[in-house]
Amino acid sequence: MSRAGVTPERLVRAGADLADEVGFDQVTVSALARQFDVKVPSLYAHVEGSRDLRTRIALLALDELADLGAAALAGRAGKAALSALGDVYRDYARAHPGRYAATRMRLDPATAAAGAGPRHAELLRAILRGYQLSETDQTHAVRLIGSTFHGYLSLELAGGFDHSSPDSQQSWTRIMDALDSLLRNWPAQ
Amino acid sequence: MSRAGVTPERLVRAGADLADEVGFDQVTVSALARQFDVKVPSLYAHVEGSRDLRTRIALLALDELADLGAAALAGRAGKAALSALGDVYRDYARAHPGRYAATRMRLDPATAAAGAGPRHAELLRAILRGYQLSETDQTHAVRLIGSTFHGYLSLELAGGFDHSSPDSQQSWTRIMDALDSLLRNWPAQ
DNA sequence: TCACCTTGCCTAAGGCACTTAGGTAAATGC
DNA sequence: GCATTTACCTAAGTGCCTTAGGCAAGGTGA
């Protein structure tokens, strides 16, 4: 029998694509085995199992997203940087809903720390250098912006804004305005 | 054989409790059958299946949460109202992580509209009456605050703020300050 | 009171996913 | 050319979801 050429990388890539098509939680070892025209147990030579596979997809997505974010921030500051990063997240979430859902997976702390998670926090901190915030307030602001981005995209992907006006794009733009305004007028303790 | 006294209500209640203990996606028809000391297929007389069960848990949680929110808003306005509602969500999410996760489940539009979902939007709108915003900006603000609440709680529950300082409570308080400030100084178009 | 019907629970059975153990054949390296 | 590694296989056990069909307990009407 000829070899199918399965590698961890191809598996993870195919898993990520599958997630984008049918949803992250429909990504299954079995589905991938079918796709590679291979029996299910064969995949256990390449990934440790279902959870490992998902974890790797999450790490891939986090990495891709951090790369895009870093590229978008180059040469931008202040509101332009904020909007650019927001749009990177939003465009990514809409173009790759499965990968984006993967980034929301709960990773164990060691794995998370070894992946691109910290880079994301770093990107947000970089944006905040354009605003005048104390060290502590920077942390609060990172958490606020991260929460708002993630919350908005999660609600938008869930269809929460689908059947009401104004459309989601308008709210998104105004929310960027609002966050910028908030950062420029950050309330004193 | 004696009857176990299974009803849809008890099932859903037990399912919600189980979700809080072991996580919403560990809630399974099988686990509930074990808990009621009944064979799995017996439950199909009471709920239509796994998805139906989860949906009902989600609706229960949304309902409980809307009740708590409405109670917290009574007699409060402005920042007090904003903080009170935020705390209701946050306390609920921390006390009932499984139920809270259930509220994030994607429901089909008809079910969502029939449940307590709209009441939640109404609660946010009620808060915004204490601030001077145009009709359209109210919608944007509802989406912003909803996103921030949901995003923050989701990150917090995922342990995202666990091993860093300042602690999550401080950020939460400051974020309430920031949102209040933002609503009082909402940027013009 | 008794026959009847509804209803709550059962067994049987099929499907799909995950995982481990152990075998075989293809590729690789000496 | 032979040994080793590697990629894939079959077999087998577990768990969950779901449908179909049966039986008996509890309430209902004559």
Describe the structure.
The structure is a homodimer of 189-residue chains. By secondary structure, chain A is an all-alpha fold. Chain A is 69% helix and 0% strand. The first copy, chain A, has nine helices and no strands. Chain A has helices at residues 8-22, 29-36, 50-73, 78-95, 97-103, 109-114, 117-128, 135-157, 168-184. In chain A, helix 1 (8-22) crosses helix 3 (50-73), helix 3 runs antiparallel to helix 4 and helix 4 (78-95) runs antiparallel to helix 7 (117-128). The first copy, chain A, starts with 7 loop residues before the first helix and ends in a 5-residue tail after the last helix. The model of chain A has no long low-confidence stretch (mean pLDDT 96). At the A-B interface, helix 8 and helix 9 of A face helix 8 and helix 9 of B. Chain A binds a DNA duplex (30 and 30 nucleotides) through residues 1-6, 28-31, 38-42, 44-46, 49-50.
Kindly report the oligomeric state of this protein: homodimer
Distance between the termini of chain A: 70 Å
User: Can you count the beta strands of chain A?
Assistant: 0
> Roughly how much helix do the residues of chain A carry, as a percent range?
55-70%
SS field, number of helical segments of chain A = 9
Shape of chain A: elongated
Q: Output the radius of gyration of chain A.
A: 19 Å
The low-pLDDT segments of chain A are none
Average pLDDT taken over every residue of chain A: 96
Of all chain pairs, the largest interface belongs to: A-B, 39 and 39 residues
